Amino acid sequence: MDQELLRAWKRGDKDAGSRFVARNFPPVHRFFRNKVDAQEVDDLVQRSFLACLEAADRIRPDASVRAFLLACARRQLLKFLYERGKHARRRDVPWKAGGPFDQTPTHDMGVQQDARALLRALRRLPLELQLTVELFYWEELPIAEIATVLGVPQGTVKSRLFRARESLRAEIGELERTGSLWRTTVDSLGGWSAEVRRQATC
């Protein structure tokens, strides 16, 4: 479906373009919402869709359009950070009030303490580790598609997931100094991230 809509959009079918954007807007918007200032999100989302459209002819018939689109989003993010002289690490990107996590998990969910601990730890990880975690847990992409988004071999994705989990444990342990909290938080990462994804889509 996405392949057909994108190619029709490329041929000038605006209705197909609107349908393609509507189908794929949520994951692209989530991708940016927790990484940049709120006022920058819409522009980066638009740039990502336009980049995907311009490169539509390079997508293989058997390829995942979603992965290709998120790869475009990643390139737009890195370009955005580079242009502003930032290092590609979350700790260099301000965590602004009013982002999805301030609106949903830390205020509305019944896991406020764990949510805050995980978010503070996640923002301390290198950007590529954060992206790997988010794509795996939030977007539920298979390893092969994550590899496409990040432009790395599948084995690298697996090793990054392992490193990210271990780094999160270390960071949460450093931040909270409460063993029961960090074990619960990291071990329940999948379920917690699924809830964040659901809330962020609302």
Which descriptors would you attach to this protein?
12 helices; 2 domains; 0% strand; Arc Repressor Mutant, subunit A; Rna Polymerase Sigma Factor, Chain: A; 202 residues; mainly alpha
Kindly describe this structure.
This protein is mostly helical and 202 residues long. It contains twelve helices and no strands. The radius of gyration is 17 Å and the shape is globular. Mean pLDDT is 78; it is low at 87-111.
Q: Uncertain spans, ≥5 residues at pLDDT below 50? A: 87-111
Largest sheet: none
Radius of gyration: 17 Å
Q: Under CATH, the topology of the largest domain is which?
A: Arc Repressor Mutant, subunit A
Q: What CATH architecture label of the largest domain applies?
A: Orthogonal Bundle
Q: What is the chain-wise order of helices and strands? A: HHHHHHHHHHHH
Summary?
The protein is an all-alpha fold. α2 packs across α4 and α7 (about 110-120) packs across α11. About 75% of the residues lie in helices and about 0% in strands.
SSE arrangement:
Elements: H1 2-10, H2 14-33, H3 38-54, H4 65-83, H5 100-103, H6 105-108, H7 112-122, H8 127-138, H9 143-150, H10 154-176, H11 179-187, H12 189-201
